[in-house]
């Protein structure tokens, strides 16, 4: 169950990163509220995952899911660059996440 918590925490990290963009510097109420709730729930789920996943692995996976997910949303929603080197770099992060999962009990 810890890996499920960690995965959802990573997805919520994507949510709060995107939410910050829409909050316009925390000047818009609803995007700001959604961002804060996403941060709190994400950190709570990360803390639950730490009961059985080593901190180094959990934090790297959490941040990696947030990084890859936010980059993908940036490409899909905000028309950010799809330069091959950028895509390859995002892919390397994703491969690293899979590797961490495979070597962690």
What does this structure look like?
By secondary structure, the protein is mostly helical. Helix content is 83%, strand content 0%. It has one domain. The chain is built from four helices and no strands.
Brief synopsis:
The chain has 105 residues and is mainly alpha-helical.
Compute the number of structural domains: 1
Kindly estimate the percentage of residues that lie in beta strands according to DSSP.
Answer: under 5%
Largest sheet: none
Amino-to-carboxy terminus distance: 12 Å
Structural class by SSE content: mainly alpha
**What's the overall average pLDDT, rounded?**
97
Q: Can you count the helices?
A: 4
List segments where confidence is low: pLDDT < 50 over at least 5 consecutive residues: none
Shape: flat
> Roughly how much helix do the residues carry, as a percent range?
over 70%
Counting DSSP E segments of at least 2 residues, the number of strands comes to 0
Radius of gyration: 15 Å
GO biological process, one term: xenobiotic detoxification by transmembrane export across the plasma membrane
Protein name: Guanidinium exporter
Organism: Xanthobacter tagetidis
Subcellular location: Cell membrane
């Amino acid at each position: 169950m810890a890996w499920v918590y960690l995965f959802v925490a990573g997805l919520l990290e994507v949510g709060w990163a995107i939410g910050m963009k829409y909050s316009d510097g925390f000047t818009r109420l609803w995007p700001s509220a959604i961002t804060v709730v996403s941060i709190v729930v994400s950190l709570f789920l990360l803390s639950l995952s730490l009961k059985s996943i080593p901190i180094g692995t959990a934090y790297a996976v959490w941040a990696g899911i947030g990084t890859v997910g936010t980059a993908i949303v940036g490409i899909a929603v905000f028309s950010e660059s799809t330069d091959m080197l950028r895509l390859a770099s995002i892919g390397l992060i994703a491969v690293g996440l899979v590797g961490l999962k495979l070597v962690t009990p």
